[in-house]
Structure formats: C-alpha cells, structure tokens
Design brief:
By secondary structure, this protein is an alpha+beta fold. It has helices spanning about 1-20, 20-30, 45-50, 55-60, 65-75, 80-90, 95-110, 135-145, 145-150, 200-225; strands at about 125-130, 155-165, 165-170, 175-185, 190-200.
Amino acid sequence: MTKQKDLKRVVRARMQKTGEAYTTARLQTIREKPKKAVTPAAPEYATLAGMSDDAVKAKTGRDWGEWVRELDAIGAATMSHRDIARRVHDEFGAGDWWGQTVTVGYERIRGLRAIGQRRAGAWEAAKSRTYPVPLAALYAAWADAKKRARWLPDAKLSVRKATAERSMRITWGDGTSVELWFTSKGDAKSSVQVQHTKLATKEDATRLKAYWGERLDALGDLLARANE
C-alpha cells in the first residue's frame, strides 16, 4: 500500500509539472527507470602504498582503506614517522616489520613521502625474500660473519644491534644503514626483509635495490646447498 501511495504522489507531481493526464503521467512514470547513483572511484591506496590490500589485510587485519581511516582519526598525518609506527604497533597490534610497512604505506598515501623515499627526503631500497629453511638457519646466515661472507663478500659493515631470530641493524661501510626483520613461516620456511636507508638519491636506491636482489639470490643458493 505504501509503494502505491508513493507512486500516486510521484504521478501527481509529474501531472503538475507536465500537464499530462493521470493515466499518461502514470504510464510514463512506470516506464522511466531510476537513474543509478554514480559511486566515486575508490582511492588507489594499494598503488600509492606499494602493496596490495589483500597482503596487508592478511597480516594486519585491515586493508589500506581501513588503515587510512584509523590513522586519520588519531591525527597521524601530522605525526612523526616514529610516533605513527609506535602507535600502529602498540595500539593496533601490528608486528615490528608490519608496523613499519603500514606506517610507510600510510605516509605514501597521504603524500608525506614517495615510494623509496623517507619522510626527511632521504631514499631507501627495500627487498624481501622467503626461503625453504628454518628461521634459525636464515638468521645464522646473517649473524655468523663467516657464513655471511660467503654470500655477501667484500661488504664492509658493522652490526649495531641484533635481536636473535627477529631483527638486526647494520651500519654499512659508507655510513648508510641496513635494517633487517626476520619472520618464521613454519618449521621449514622463513623470510627476511631488508631496508637499506639513508641513501642520498633515487639512483642510489635503484642501484641498491638491484644489489640486494642479487645478494638475496646468492643467499638462497647458499642455503640450498646447505640443505643438500
């Protein structure tokens, strides 16, 4: 009954506007299809962040749209990188590496940095790799200087801080910094994420991203031989 009353109301409004008879106005009203609402295109958050919605949601429980809403609500766009990362970790429960990933992605989405660039303007190179070995074996390949020299030869570096099977911070020979995060993905599978930071130019970031791709491949070859 309510729908019928609504139809009559629309028909009478049309009659007043067009001067049509009731029957004609009713027929034309029924024939006309309501216009579909145009939904604005969703922001390309994943493209700006450099990581898919599925990947970030699988590890943090939120996609980029949800992270943007949460972080906007606490005023993250005006915070330092350190403060955003701390709150993502402490208040939203993201792990160390994923807390950094969410923070960097949010900063890219909000135009606070470009892909490969730090908030202060310096550049960085990031690479990650997953290997079919236990976490202990992967960590040892970095922590043991002799093993490390087999796949990372001629690299002048010093380890500033290390948390066994979790993270490592390295000062590179040229004064730049390398940050590592290690993650177990099961009894015989683990991954490492590398961020080479404090780079002066975008060209440095491109060069070192390729370098770390090659070195992580070499590490994979070493780990594979150890398993033979």
